Amino acid sequence: MEIYMYILLIFLVVCAIATSFTKSLLNAVLVFMSYSLIMSIIWILLESPDLAITEAAVGAGVTSILFFITLKKIEAIRKEREQDE
């Protein structure tokens, strides 16, 4: 069980670094969402289900939705697509 914890912690660090260095705002939000989901799995392994549910709901759910709405309002998603083409 301990090896799984180390693997998850490595993924957690990779997600944090990837969020910092990504150029695309949409990709940063998606990586942040995966960071939150990994963190909720770690809370489950630490036998703290109340924190896991809160992390999944707030971190991956509500915060990500707010980020997506903000990106749509500032039209950042459309600008990234136009630059890719």
Describe the structure.
This protein has 4 helices and no strands. It is mainly α. It is elongated.
Instruction: Please give the largest β-sheet.
Output: none
Helix tally equals: 4
The structural class is mainly alpha
Low-confidence stretches: none
Shape: elongated
Query: First CA to last CA: what distance?
Result: 46 Å
Total strands: the figure is: 0
**Estimated helix fraction:** over 70%
Question: What is the helix/strand order?
Answer: HHHH
Strand percentage lies at: under 5%
On the 0-100 scale, what is the average pLDDT? 88
- Rg over CA atoms, rounded to whole Å, is 15 Å
Write the layout of secondary structure elements.
Blueprint: H1 2-21, H2 25-45, H3 49-73, H4 76-84
Helix pairs in contact: 1-2, 2-3
Briefly say what this structure is.
With 85 residues, this protein is mainly α. Helices cover 88% and strands 0% of the residues. It has four helices and no strands.
Short descriptors:
85 residues; mainly alpha; 4 helices; 0% strand; elongated
